[in-house]
Design goal:
- This protein is of the alpha+beta class and 320 residues long.
- The protein has 13 helices and 12 strands.
- Helix 1 runs antiparallel to helix 6, helix 10 crosses helix 11 and helix 10 crosses helix 12.
- The longest helix has 20 residues.
- The N and C termini lie far apart (71 Å).
Length: 320
């Protein structure tokens, strides 16, 4: 049975088709930066102790946190708890769990529901949080492998039945079960809101980049949202799933400069804005993504024809 919780957000689902490409993850309209989203999900796990996964809109699990399973498996699809790992080591149970997850993801929650819940084959309550941005469904976060603060009799019955059917030691399994995080309704709703925010943050900060736009516009969008971070040719090629030669040709043909020059120009424009707001030259450089003041000085002179110090003095004179 699927339960829809009543907290609302103003959004609706517009499904995107996902697919894999060049070792990365591509959607018809969005490119997903796996590394950044994986880091955010692992941070969520470190703060809450709740295990989560991210599924694309075709019900494929593409990220799981933590990305190191209890059994020491270094694989981002194997972040299960000791309790679930023990159960899913049995192929029949693993298949049942997978089918249960797929059935849950195929449900159609009411537009605006922040999350909905379902019961897994072991009697645990699992939760799905659709991730939206601007009415577009980016994918679904799923979290669970937790105990409810108000345990249900049916949950215990399902577990005991599994132990009998597959000859598992009840004492050992219940010990593993007791080690699962125990949470209440307020905690679950707070976790759901955080995951919603992660989805929006991911889009705002260029973790999802629209691939329906021309390539030059996607490059511009990525740089504008990421210039404060360390970015280079390799990072943008990985996110946009393009070759270095394609990037170089597009920059030369449609933007009129190299990628490094373009990034520096965007950063220098921000340095000028920071200084106009009263920041020191060093702070403006740091806030604009430069990690070397001397390099920023050279880039500033190349962009404007004057040094940052001269520009700063010009701003002071304008104020007199």
């Amino acid at each position: 049975m699927f339960t829809k919780l009543n907290e609302k957000v103003q959004s609706q689902s517009v499904p995107f088709k996902n697919k894999y490409s060049n070792g990365g993850i591509v959607l018809d309209f969005l490119s997903l930066n796996y590394t950044y989203l994986s880091e955010a999900m692992n941070d969520f796990y470190q703060l809450t102790g709740i295990r989560i996964s991210f599924w694309n809109t075709e019900a494929e699990k593409i990220i799981m946190a933590p990305d190191d399973a209890d059994g020491g498996l270094k694989n981002h699809l194997n972040g299960n708890s000791a309790f679930c790992s023990k159960l899913r080591a049995i192929p029949e149970i693993d298949a049942q769990c997978h089918c249960c997850d797929l059935q849950a993801l195929q449900q159609n929650p009411r537009k605006g529901d922040i999350l909905y819940s379902f019961q897994c084959v072991a009697g645990l309550t699992e939760y799905i949080v659709p991730a939206y941005f601007n009415n577009h469904l980016l994918g679904n976060f799923m979290f669970g492998q937790i105990r409810s603060a108000q345990p249900k009799e049916k949950s215990s019955e399902l577990r005991q039945q599994l132990y009998r059917d597959y000859q598992l030691d009840p004492k050992e399994m219940e010990s593993l079960y007791e080690h699962l995080p125990c949470v209440n309704h307020d905690f679950i709703m707070a976790a759901a809101r955080i995951l919603r925010a992660i989805g929006s943050h991911a889009y705002y900060n260029g973790l999802f980049v629209s691939s329906s736009l021309p390539l030059s516009s996607r490059i511009y969008q990525y740089v504008q949202t990421n210039f404060m971070r360390p970015i280079n040719v390799q990072s943008i090629c990985e996110v946009l799933h393009i070759s270095r030669s394609t990037l170089s040709q597009t920059m030369r043909r449609e933007i009129g400069c190299s990628f490094v020059t373009f990034v520096n120009d965007v950063r220098i424009d921000n340095v000028k804005k920071c200084m106009q707001n009263g920041m020191s030259i060093t702070e403006a450089a740091y806030r604009s993504g430069f990690r070397s003041t001397s390099y920023m000085y050279r880039a500033f002179r190349a962009r404007t024809g004057i040094s940052p110090s001269v520009y700063k003095n010009m701003l002071k004179n304008e104020e007199l």
